[in-house]
Amino acid sequence: MTNLRKTIAVLPGDGIGPEVTHAAIQLLQDCASAFGHHFEFREFPFGGNAIDLRGTPLPQDTLAGCRSADAILLGAIGGPKWEALPLGTRPEAGLLGIRKELGLYINLRPIRLRPALRGISPLRPERLVDCDFEIVRELAGDIYFGAHELHLEGNNPRARDIAEYTAAEVERVARYSFERAAARKGHLTSVDKANVLATSTLWRETVIGLAREYPGVTLDHLYVDNAAMQILLRPAQFDVILTGNLFGDILSDEAAALAGSIGLIPSMSRGCKDQPALYEPIHGSAPTLAGKDVACPLGAILSATLMLRESFGLETESQWIESAIDRVLEKGFRTADIADPGGRVVRGSEFTAQIRSELQASSAQGVRRGSVA
Length: 373
Ligand code: IPM
Ligand code: MG
Hints:
This protein is of the alpha/beta class. The protein has helices spanning 17-35, 48-54, 60-67, 91-101, 167-182, 198-211, 224-233, 245-258, 298-310, 315-330, 348-364, and strands spanning 5-13, 38-43, 71-76, 106-112, 132-138, 148-151, 158-161, 187-192, 218-223, 240-243, 266-270, 277-281.
């Protein structure tokens, strides 16, 4: 195993973003020292804070810093302070901008329930047996990136958003999903609204056209309304779910609720394999929690372990951190959002400190480079 040198662009963002990215960086640093890697962190303004500092949510040097990094770690963006701004100038425009500029067309959201947290899911435990799936959301097209028109003037205010896909856009994300499914349980569910939408008809035709290239993968299709229901009724039937940008936004929040809290789910946004991928928790900036040290850092920390695995090929390191997280949860430590009723609640920083001391303990026992099979 070689020692790696990697540069990570950090965009802490707004609200709880800085707290949770700080936690993730601490664990990445612990990982680097335990395994002999070198991670350099470069921080850039992004989102609302960049609007305040530079007048734009995605400044040029932030974009340049992301392009030249090996991976990007993002906290969360947005908040009431910037909500009155016109749509295209808000913090969210920075997020859509970076996705577009870096060509991040794949968004992977793993829905994995941590064993110790089964009890906090809103679903009955028997429905959660074997529930472990991934949502692959197309991230660079659809109604998000078509023209948006808003006419509030006059006595007939109206608005229009255009949804568009090309077959090539569908194909590239579908290929990734087939490959992902082939490496897992071999089951791909494509979600669309082909009974109503033209974009969905193109989507379905394109996905079906690719299926013969992946004989090891069983492909099925669900309409999005049914998919929303199936995720609650029988979540264990899914392996990889492939869907468009808007449906993926909605279904991934729904699926995150199964895990017990949206604060637990990480994501990867990626373009071509040789370009930097962006990792972020799927939760928002939670402005009302900011600065109170109550936010759960797990979404950001699991985004960091996803980075180790997917961008740097460091599976052992990634598991080293994730098993420490599971031990801390087993011991009963919880942030407020994942607490059992009447259970023990610690601050976000205390929760991170507990994971770090688990890591120290496991390093001391020699679970590190050279002694892991
Ligand atoms: C997400 C978020 C974003 C999206 C918002 C903040 C623009 O909800 O990453 O899921 O809609 O893609
Ligand atoms: Mg969302």
